[in-house]
Design goal:
This protein is α/β, with parallel strands linked by helices.
């Protein structure tokens, strides 16, 4: 099967019709015969050793997987290879959104790709990446206004949307599972670990950078802490304030619509869970120095962050990907080295504890994706269309594959004075 072959039609569930107003340009794949031929050649080479089964409309297959291997079904190969050729880092996901390919085992298909992410493109061709990779647009830079716009595009989609697939804690970050934990217990275990790293106890003055929907602030307040929590999402602030009041802690938690760079006051502890990924690498020094400035002498930090290997972080630092375009504009995932170095160079704090639990994130994402799929009719009733469904499924499965493969990890860090214990 080549890119010139005629694509067979897929079923209606696999071939959504993108609304041009909501998804501009998605319905019509870009066209570059030269790049499409190169993309097809590279794709065939990359798939050859993978434990997957890529099937074409005429029944031919690629991949090292047998009949039981996870199947990637190409519905419109020509469109797929044109998208891949013009912009591989965006086109692969857009092709799924548009129904050019599909799978009944999406995370299982994506995991072998993630396991070989660094070698999918031959080393001899990787030197040309800077000529073909799209750069992140200046409009998505994390200035004060840019950060608000970036956060608005994801976290202000709809509180009800997130409520369909998150558990009752409304935590949108990796859980930390113990024996027999359900999701809520695992989320509370995660929160308690971060609070312990930060030394939060009765009487602590706590600054939280990134409110989410308020569960960490509630749990800190239940320890007797006084919490100032910062968010730049209006939707999150509204629901978090309501949840905190219903939990009986309105007098102990102040949720402010405030960027971390505008924070004031001194605190015994700073906590932040999976917010650093939205900061942007050029603003990491400001983020770290702000933490140092906001802590009293002897204060401590509890930080949770998605991480990737340092060399991969450097390689990806300027790329504009599908995740940036559709899910997290302006984001970049740090390495553990970047976190440790940033804290060392911009604060007087030193690391006194670290924990890695990437497979727990894979499990978290799988449970979210299952709930999202099971409750799709409720999501659709909120006004989200079939293209959104496929986008969100791809996002959750793509992320799960990253953690399953080890390409992505998640760490908790504890920082304090040199003598902190």
């Amino acid at each position: 099967m080549t890119t010139s072959s005629v694509d067979r039609a897929a079923g209606p569930a696999e071939r959504p019709v993108p609304n041009e107003n909501h998804w501009p340009g998605l319905a019509t794949p870009p066209h570059s015969a030269f790049r499409a031929r190169i993309a097809e050649s590279l794709f065939r080479r990359a798939v050859r050793p993978l434990d997957v089964r890529v099937t074409f409309p005429d029944g031919t297959t690629l991949g090292a997987g047998g009949p039981e291997a996870p199947e990637m079904r190409l519905k419109r190969p020509a469109a797929f290879f044109h998208r891949l050729g013009v912009d591989a880092k965006i086109g692969f996901g857009e092709a799924y959104m548009a129904g050019d390919w599909t799978s009944d085992a999406l995370a299982d298909v994506l995991t072998p790709f993630a396991e070989r992410m660094a070698t999918l493109v031959p080393p001899v061709l990787q030197r040309f990446r800077r000529f073909v990779d799209r750069r992140q647009p200046s409009t998505e830079e994390n200035t004060l206004e840019g950060s608000r716009q970036n956060i608005h595009r994801h976290y202000d989609l709809s509180n009800e949307l997130f409520g369909t697939f998150l558990d009752e804690s409304m935590m949108y970050s990796s859980a930390l599972f113990g024996p027999d934990d359900d999701m809520t217990a695992a989320q509370h275990r995660k929160i308690d670990s971060v609070l312990d790293y930060a030394g939060v106890r009765d009487g602590s003055a706590v600054l939280e950078i990134g409110t989410g929907w308020g569960e960490l602030a509630i749990r800190a307040a239940s320890r007797g802490a006084q919490v100032t929590s910062l968010t730049i999402s209006e939707e999150q602030r509204a629901l978090a304030t309501d949840r905190i009041a219903r939990a009986g802690f309105a007098d102990k938690v102040d949720v402010q619509l405030c960027d971390y760079r505008e924070a004031t006051g001194l605190y015994d502890a700073v906590v932040s869970v999976e917010m650093i990924e939205a900061v942007g690498s050029q603003y990491w020094p400001t983020f770290f120095s702000t933490i140092g400035q906001r802590l009293r002498p002897g204060g401590r930090l509890g930080l949770q962050a998605i991480t990737m290997d340092h060399d991969r972080m450097l390689a990806a630092s300027q790329s504009y990907t599908w995740i940036h375009k559709y899910i997290f504009p302006g984001g970049i995932i740090p390495s553990t080295q970047a976190v440790e170095r940033g804290m060392h160079e911009n604060t007087q704090l030193r690391m006194h504890g670290v924990r890695e639990f990437g497979l727990d994130y894979a499990h978290t994402l799988r449970l979210w994706r299952e709930r999202f799929t099971q409750r799709w009719s409720e999501v659709a009733d909120l006004g989200f269309d079939e293209v959104f469904r496929r986008m969100w499924e791809f996002y959750l499965a793509y992320s799960e594959a990253g953690f399953r493969s080890g390409y992505l990890k998640v760490h908790q860090f504890g920082f304090g004075a040199n003598d902190a214990r």
